[in-house]
Amino acid sequence: MLPFRIERPRTVNEAINAAAAGGRYIVGGTTLYDLMREEVERPERLVDINGLPLYGVSVDNGAVVIGALTKMSDVAANPDILHMHPIVSETLVEGASPQLRNMASIGGNLLQRVRCPYFRMLDAACNKRAPGTGCSAIDGMNGGTAIFGTSSSCIATHPSDLAVTLVALDATMKVRGPKGERIFPVSQLYRMPGTTPHLEHTLMPGELIIEVRIPAYQGRRTGRYLKVRDRSSYEFAVVSSAAILELNGGTITQACVAVGGVGTVPWRMPKVEAALTGKPASREVFEQAAAVSLEGHKALPGNHHKADLLPRTIVRSLELARDAA
Amino acid sequence: MSRRDVLNLAGAAASVTVIPTVAGSAKSQSAAQPGTMPVSFTVNGQRQQLSIDPRQSLLDVLREKLDLTGAKKGCNQGACGACTVLVNGRRVVSCLTMAATQQGAEIVTIEGLASGDQLHPLQQAFIEHEGLQCGFCTPGQIMSGVACIKEGHARSPEEIKYWMSGNICRCGAYPGIVAAVADAAKRS
Fold this sequence. Notes:
Chain A is α+β, with helices and mostly antiparallel strands. Chain A is built from twelve helices and twelve strands.
């Protein structure tokens, strides 16, 4: 590991100033510290923000507000989350291990880096790690890569489960930086790779995630997160689906579906949602809607199984959501 | 003579390969020696004021500075759970915990579980249920199990399996591990 300096700012403003001057924020370190050891990440200056007062979950006019430093395990066990958005708890508990969930913050979870094997291999070409060197995955080991949002520069999948569910819930985030505060949808945090896969998010230098807000909703809502993977716990998704339904009698009045494991960013499915709205919550309708999910996908020899799994995973998650009502 | 003394003797006689740690990583040898920084935390009830290399993990500080070698270095990337310890009452993987971020923390390792000669109930249960074969993963399993019980995630074998999945046992002693956690949960 290369040497670095680490500082412990006492206030949010001190932290922002340190990060704007080139520091990298660190909380649990479950991604960054690991990648520093591999020398994939080489920060010269770390800003330890564990001491900042950005913890906890609160309810504000029906919206749920999660402090960016709150640990995954604390959000998963929070009574307001369990009561108002059990899908968030389910999503978090399906991710990582109990130990890592005690360490990783919500803000860090959203900014975790990809799990493409070549990203970690210093001697392999990877445009995300070393821009301009090429993508080893396109003609290499690509069983875990994306089928949506890929480019000729990068096909790595976004690894966060939580981001998928937050995108389905239309969650927003508040960030603060040298130029003040911004609020924007979580979906706008992410950049598709295009020709610049090393640029993964839309935060400006020094900007710090302050909180995530899940908006209030009306009516009766039910949601489930289904994660399909190589073993039954502690593994990244092959395909996952966050399905949220508002039901009136047996009719779907609103549907929100986002999927993981298949996109270079968390992937919302507006056409699937449109095909569900106003229809009965039946398996037949779910299957018809899920058939639309593959529109625009691009599979490779190594990952075409994801195209088989995706509609089935969506159908099953919709059934689970309906049956949870 | 402790178990470790025996291992040390055996190591000296067999001239075991030394695995390079933190500062000695081959990749970093050309790097300038960095400065150290002060950090203080409590380990098994004892206050420790240390001067550390900011690159050091909590695991390396425990093993190499404090001679607490119960927590094991398995994968060193947060995947196997052999290095599990409690920080402020919660289980974490100490290999991915930067010691520099642990100012003021209260840390408990496997060495801090027993009271004198009286084993912790989960340690005793691991013996009774044969929750181990080679023993390498055992300190991590037990620390994780202690937390699993305290969290209330040990109400059924299925639940224990799910909530212990951050700890890998390559000998495959899982049936005994699950039985030990279930038994200790009932007794506590």
